[in-house]
Design goal:
Elements lengths: L5 H15 L3 E2 L15 E5 L9 E8 L5 H16 L7 E9 L4 H14 L4 E6 L4 E5 L4 E5 L5 H4 L4 E2 L7 E3 L6 E3 L1
Parallel strand pairs: 3-4, 4-5
Antiparallel strand pairs: 1-2, 2-3, 5-6, 6-7, 8-9, 9-10
Helix pairs in contact: 2-3
Length: 180
């Protein structure tokens, strides 16, 4: 998958966090301020939200390919940036990492890292396929969403094997067998 541009990543993060955290939304025209603050997106709680007068200040980091060590490094960088700023009352800093594709192994490592080094910090790992891992302890948010992927997507070139009455297919590229 191709890496997203900064604007696309900001839109993805705003949309996914607004969905994951009930009552929060990115308001049109709401800019976080100068880029040197480390904040890329601001989400505010709506009037009917139980979290009135709260905002999420989100720092977005992007990775072209997911390597767990790079992911942990970006989380650490985001923590340092967000913790070096004095936040007003009601502002919750969140680190969002956008990657082409993420899975449970990366989520587990990130969760362990954040639990050890910053148990109260908000963080999210989002990918272009729709997977999302969002943890914001102050709001009691813990979202673990992995979209259902069809088996055929893994072996795009799979064709039915004519001599196999069991319905098995072989991938012409790698030769592996899959039951559909």
């Amino acid at each position: 998958m191709k890496m997203l541009r900064a604007e696309q990543a900001e839109e993805l993060v705003a949309r996914e966090l607004a969905e994951a955290v009930p009552g929060f939304s990115a308001r049109p025209g709401l800019r976080p301020g100068p880029r040197d603050t480390g904040v890329d997106v601001v989400l505010r709680a709506g009037q009917g939200s139980p979290h009135r007068r709260r905002s999420l200040a989100v720092s977005i980091k992007m990775l072209a390919t997911l390597r767990v060590e790079d992911l942990l490094g970006r989380l650490a960088m985001g923590l340092i940036e967000l913790r070096s700023r004095p936040w007003g009352q009601g502002v919750i800093p969140v680190i969002a990492i956008v990657v082409p594709s993420a899975g449970p192994r990366a989520w587990e490592r990130a969760e362990g890292f954040m639990a050890l080094h910053a148990p109260d910090a908000g963080w999210a790992i989002l990918d272009q396929a729709g997977s999302a891992r969002v943890v914001i302890p102050l709001l009691k948010v813990d979202v673990n969403r992995r979209p259902a992927r069809r088996r055929e997507e893994r072996h795009r070139g799979a064709v039915p094997w004519p001599s196999a009455p069991t319905g098995r297919t072989a991938c012409p590229r790698c030769g592996s067998w899959a039951r559909l």
